[in-house]
Structures are given as structure tokens and as C-alpha cells.
Amino acid sequence: MTANTSIIRGGSAALALAWALAFAMPASAEVAGKVLFIAGSVTLERAPPVALKAGDLIETGTVIATGDKSRAQILMNDGARVALRAASRYRVDDFGLPASVGAPTQVTTTRAAGVSVATLLKGGFRSSTGAIGKDGAGTYEVRTPIGTLGIRGTDYTAIWCQGDCDDAPGLSTANAARNGMYLATHVGSIVFRYGGREAIVNAGEVIFIAAADALPEPLEELPAWVIEDGAGRLETGAQQGDVKGSTALPDLAGRRPPPTGQQAPSDSAAPDPKDASGAQGVQRPITGTVGGQQQIDLTSGQLPRGPNNPPPGTPSVPPPSNNVPPPTPPPGGN
């Protein structure tokens, strides 16, 4: 696959200065969102660290840190979702919406101008766009160690690997992650500005950038460590598309039924739940028994047809009467 990635060379920005300024804390903290989901060890970096739980508010200026095999999902006030990879550090620098958008932590689809600025300090995340950044509205930025991300209404993944992306299942020394930035766009497009260049990554594309002075490398397949880590598959719960090659790790809800003549696994007692897109999973057989011996198929929700369950419209036959006449006496009897 050849990514439609555009490069614009220009005067080198003061990246080192910008990265240093990225650590500056805002003058006052504002509520930017709340925690939707926590798995494993997730903390706010304070002295001492504060363990996070679902429902906790996230303020500007705070750093969210996920431990090994841990996950956090954040709902921003504009409806955006951020799923943090294991062993990551992510700071919400600035966030603001017009008063018309709604109260803090309220999910909204209003396309309102606003500001959403964050910094990826370590690890990675997947994010789906809220009101800010949708169709280019408002100011949206995610700062990274080598550049700054902007969006145009999207669902994307950004992973910064520095010898810490080896927790995805099935990796070996032959297919280990290289150090650098991995950017994958699932829906929409992202713009990554770094080292005087601009790279545009459209839906279905994935690129790798080794350093601030390196050219982007289009990748044919989505690397395993971008899809998954030690905590499982990296998702926001709002997926609408995916990158080519991501089917290397199939969704279990997409499994095909067993071939004819083969029995389904013994745990197949009910239909699969709906997948992330809302589609119904594969129907699995539901069986019962008659008389403790004969097996019948109840998957369709209908009882099998038989003498006691005739098809609709079949004329009813009255049951035999219990008033059986006495036997006729033999000829010549008394």
C-alpha cells in the first residue's frame, strides 16, 4: 500500500523550544472530561499519585499514567474519546468550549469552536473526534516528542515507541517494533507537523517516522503493537473504520460458523453479542432434549414440528374419547 502522504518542506520550527513549553502548566485548572473506563493500574501523577476510577473528573494540567497491562478510556467534554495504551503518560494541557455546548463531561455532537490541546509524553493512544476538530472547527493539537498532531474529523492511533512496544502478543525479535512514531488513521485524516515538514495521513493509511529529521515511511500492514498491547485491543468504543492490514487480528464476533457436519464448541450456548459496530454476531446453535434422550434444535426460537406441534393451518383432530364402549359379548353368551 502506498500512503497518500504529502510532505511540505519549510523553515525548521524551534521544536526543542516548543517541546519544553509543552511542559508548562496552565494558570488555572478546568474540567476537561471524565474517566469512562479503567483496567489495571491508572493514576494521576501527583505527590503522591492518585489512583483513578471510573467517573473521576479530568482537569487541565494533570498527567494520566497507565501501568503495564493497564488501560484508561477518557471522555472529553466535547464527546471525544481517548483510549490510553499500557505504559503511557498523557497530559491534558488546555481545553475550552463555548458555554452553549453544555456542562462539563456532557457528551455533545454540537460542532462548536473550542480548544483541545494535549501532550503525549510516553506510549500511545487511540482517539475519536468530538465537537472540537470536527470538519476543522476549533483548535485541536496533540504534542508528541517529535511533532504536533492536528485532525480533520477522525478516528486515529498514535504510538511513540522507545523500546517499550514489545508487549503485543506474538512478537519476536524478527518483527519487533522500531523506535519512533507510528500514526494510523481509521476514519478521516490527520496532519502531523514535525521538523519543518507536514505529513497528511488519510483513512486506511499508516506511517512510521523514526525521528524529527526523518522522512515518513508508508507501511503496508498495521503493526501488531498499534492494534494491541498487553492490556488487549486498543479501542475507544466509537470505531467506524479500520486500517488496511488490521484484520491480522480478527474480531471474534466475526467468526464463521463451523463447516457442515462439524459440531460447534460446547460453549456455544447463545448468539454472539453485537460487535463494536452494532452488527449481530454469528448465530450459534441452541439445543434441548425431549424425554431426556432425543436432541432438538431450538436456535430459531421455534419448536420443531411434530404430532404435538403441527404447522400453522393444520386442521385440528379431536383427541380420542375416554368413553370407550364395553366389549360386545360373544354369540350365545349370557
Q: In short, what is this structure?
A:
3% of the residues lie in helices and 32% in strands.
Walkthrough of the structure:
Helix content is 3%, strand content 32%. With 334 residues, it is mainly beta. The strands form three sheets. It has a 17-stranded mixed sheet that branches. Strands 18-19 form a two-stranded antiparallel ribbon. The longest helix has 7 residues, at 15-21. It is elongated. The termini are far apart. The model is unreliable at 5-27, 104-111, 244-260, 262-287 and 298-303 (pLDDT under 50).
Shape: elongated
Mean pLDDT: 74
Main sheet: strands, sense, barrel: 17 strands, mixed
- Please work out how many helical segments DSSP would assign: 2
Q: Helicity, in percent? A: under 10%
> Using only CA atoms, what is the Rg?
30 Å
- Beta content: 25-35%
Question: How far apart, in Å, are the first and last alpha carbons?
Answer: 104 Å
Low-confidence stretches: 5-27, 104-111, 244-260, 262-287, 298-303
Say how many strands there are.
Answer: 21
State the oligomer: single chain
Order of helices and strands: HEEEEEEEEEEEEEEEEEHEEEE
Structural class: mainly beta
